[in-house]
User: What shape does this take?
Amino acid sequence: MDNTVTKKNLIGLDRGELKTYLAEHDIPAYRVQQLWNWLYHHGVTSFDRMVNMPKPVRQILEDTFVIERPKIAMALTSTDGTQKWLLRFADGQEAETVHIPEVDRGTLCVSSQIGCTLTCKFCHTGTQTLVRNLDPAEIVGQMMVARDVFNEWPSPVGQRHVSNIVMMGMGEPLYNFENVSKALTIIMDHQGISLSKRRITLSTSGVVPLMQRCGDELGVNLAVSLHAARNDIRDILVPINKKYPIDQLIEACRNYPGVNNSRRITFEYVMLKDVNDSDADARELLRLIRGIPAKINLIPFNPWPGSSFECSTPARIASFSDIVYRAGYASPVRTPRGRDILAACGQLKSESQRKRKSAVI
Assistant: This one.
């Protein structure tokens, strides 16, 4: 009989949980702040580093808990400097995280699920069925692994390699909202990793009932994977549209807490040849979003093995962008990054597969 006791991972626990667990071992509550500082400001992986705690306390922590990050199973670097890490979690499942370096920032694309339920037709991740949600430790851990890679501990005050987060990796963040919310709250805590909510963007395909809550509780920037301005097209490209049609989605965008001209909603729009890229589509998009402080990110389709779509031509993208821009909306065409390592938008996928029910009973 295996009597091994699994130690609790401290990463991903909020302050209240830390207080409760420490109290169970007669460690006073004021140690929570010290522990938090070591975990999230200094990024330590060993209790021996926590030099302002007495040795007996450190020994209790060592005997009872672990400080565990995801492991990098594979690391790839694109010719444009983009890095993709295949991260392996404690149960052996895997997800991908991408770092995109830019002149004025470094953006980390974070996954919220292993696989996805949404089956968006242009997205590689959508071909991988949902394996499971990521827990708070696994979401925060992606940020911490990136900090490890760039040696950004303690948390820097000025220029950072990881200055921004986009919840645009594998999965639909709002279908894992409780865990995503807890993880982002930890990341935003000013006494730890200390990333401002203004530097965090959450992307949703349109889980309308949770959009208001996301704005109220987190206050992060919102990006919406729109990709079509008509229900008949969006029903095909983004099947969740059948549950929450465009009119409901746009109304939720209009009511998103804090949206204004300085905090605009980003509408993501993948450019698919002869599908959603006509001048008429551009004008319908403008009609749809009229009055919403917004910008439109035009995303050239990034091909992946087995995909049936083609990217719109540069001339067609330019015409679409010009119509949107002349109407007063910023319409940048996103430069594909990391295509050569399948790290670009819509290309992420891991080899994890959902276990058969019979295998887990």
Q: What stands out?
A: The longest strand covers residues 94-101. Residues 354-361 have pLDDT under 50 and may be disordered. The chain has two domains: 8-66, 71-341. The chain has eleven helices and 13 strands.
